[in-house]
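Pilot study result, target chain (417 residues):
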Amino acid sequence: MPTFEYEAMNNEGKVIKDTIQARNTDDAVTKIRDLNLFPTRVKQQAESKKSTKRAQSGEKRVKKKPFTIGGVSSKQLTTFTRQLATLTDAGIPVVQSLDILHEQMKPSALKYIVASVADDVEAGSSLSEGMANYPKAFDNLYVNMIRAGETGGVLDQVLLRLAEFREKAASLRRQIIGAMIYPLVVVLVATAILAVIIVYVIPQFRNMFSELGMEEFPLPTEVLLAVTAWLQNYWYLVPAIPVGLYALYRFIRITKTGKLVFDWVKFKLPLIGPVTNKGAIARFSRTFGTLIGSGVPILEALNISRQTAGNVVLSNAIAKARDSIREGDPLAEPLSESKVCDPMVINMIDVGEETGNLDQMLLKIADTYDEEVDAAVERLTSAMEPIMVVTLGLVVGFIVVSLLLPLISLMSQLSSG
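Predicted structure:
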């Protein structure tokens, strides 16, 4: 039977270090608690962690790092988390679960990482310690939730929570991307049509005007011909506009002040603001609720949630709330003062604190706001359609009027002459 090293606290707060034999980590935590101790660290001894099957056959994991482009995709990591949660919930030891997942994976960066984590765990590290060595695959939120599950002996439950968290986040991301596909397609098609008009149609009119000996044109026609000539001569500068805007965006977000101003503007913009605000609050509520529901201390959970908020304005509000809680104040009060969260969110957090069900209230807030984000995205998409139609109509109308004005002027001259 494997031997586990552990650190625990007794009823007097004294730290106890000892070893215990158990079938697995969960069994070890149960036995430690039966001794009226609270385990803070449980780690299987390296010498007892050899896989029986591998030891008998001499088989080794293939750890050769594959050639891959990019890192670990969010979809791939979500699938891995769900599968690991299912295997762990079935009572399969962690190392064996990682081996099973490693064997069925196609060559990828994650396959190499899983093999490395399995070897680390087999050598005596905890699962969270092994994952912490690969921050590009397992972020701070992921590692801390795993650590909390190991400490509390509820790793299977934490993995299930983490899998649900990632699946809901991925679902929301897909909905937002799906809602933006139609406007993007319309813009691309309209741009292609305008490019054809500028390159082929307008030059034909310019040649016709030259053959008719027209030298003076109405102002709209002058503007159209000047813009067309510039685009034909300097077309290679057109792609530089989005590149320059993106570079400006990146430059603004380098500084703390730039990030704060940019994120504040995102909160205040019409149509886009509600989507940004509700999306950020939903992400914070689900992250924070999942963490404290998994046993992570509230101050540490707030710090992790602040780092993963994705918005500097909300992140600053969470930091102030963390400082207030450290001084003994409730969570709802500093969030209310920040003016970032709606009164409904503040009230639900207040009720959650009073009833001791803060994690459940936060997850309800996240579910509610996810639904509101869906509705806000639909409204945004519905508003963009008429805006794009009107804009394209104005552009096409300007081109048509600019080309017809010289012809009307010419016909007037011929009829009068």
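One observation from the pilot: The domain at 1-48 is CATH 3.10.20 (Ubiquitin-like (UB roll)). A full batch analysis is planned for the follow-on phase.
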